[in-house]
User: What shape does this take?
Amino acid sequence: MADILTRDALFRVGRRYIVTTPNTRINPKVVDVEGSDVNLVVGQTALMGEALSAGWANCMRAMFVDSARGSELDRIAFDRFGITRKPAAAATVDWHLQRPNVGAGGGTVDAGTRIAAQGGQVFALKTDVVFGPSDLSLEATGVAQLVGPEQNVPAGTLWSFQDAPFDPTIVVSNTTPAAGGANQETDPAFRGRIRSYFLTLRRATLGAIQYAATTVPGVAVSTAYEIVNPGDALPAGAVELIVGDEDGNATSLVLQAVRDVLLDFRACGIPVFLSGGKVAFEDVRYRLAFSTGIDTVRAASEVRSTIVAMTQFLRPGQTLLRSDVFAAARAVPGVIAREDSVQEPAGDVVPPDNQTIIRVRAEDVSFE
Assistant: This one.
């Protein structure tokens, strides 16, 4: 917020006026007597002036993208750019439905059938899953019944039907994690997307295609690459796009939502080959020193949280810089990061391919 005139400063202005005005009909010293009529009038006026000054400062703050907050930022983004904040998103999951035999014959597992994960998260089938008389396994997709990243269940989760299917022997499994569950877009993330708006007004560029993917709720990172001919490195008339949520994962429903958005961003007739990323977890090992009087356990925990948060925004194919691992430690007050403070990684971590998304989890961070 901009600097405002406080009631104390305004009271001093009123007092100065009374004291310096000649030939007044009252004793100027009365203004300093708490509870006197003059004291109350000047104090009331100063309080009203402070409120007006604060209102003006709030209005000024709400006029700029860098300073607006909450609904103020929503209003600026929509009025000036036609952009809206991404809402909280429900996770989606790719399922494999399998049964040991065809004794129950053909049947349909209806859309909306609820299936619960071992952690209590409940998903519902996106579409009907129709088993023929001889079908033993089929693919399906599910949508979480609650929004938020807590619904992004890991691969290999145990599932149980909340609504009984026609064949009680059907077993549900997921070989890939659920993805796309996200909280409402935060002010900093929204500001970053607003800043990208003018850079992507020219459609069919790599930046515009990357930006398009991030407008889909649940998609946090994306990277676009131009596919070139191996011999002469000339453009081959196609683009590769890799996307992921905060954890780096993507499901078939997330990818389809991105494909739908790309219709307004990619060049007509130029294919965009879309895929989810491959998450690679990187170990980080610190040897830290601390200032005297610092709660070392708490400081170490803050270092761990900082490096985990920093890597959440690494895009597909983006290098994890060793200097950023140092910076995560230096960002915590009381932590002394020396030359040997980062034991792992020994250098910059370069992804082996464009699809790899580097992430650091809390359990990947250790201290000596």
In short: The radius of gyration is 29 Å. The chain has a mean pLDDT of 94. The chain has four domains: 7-61, 90-173, 187-276, 280-367. Residues 37-61 form the longest helix (25 residues).
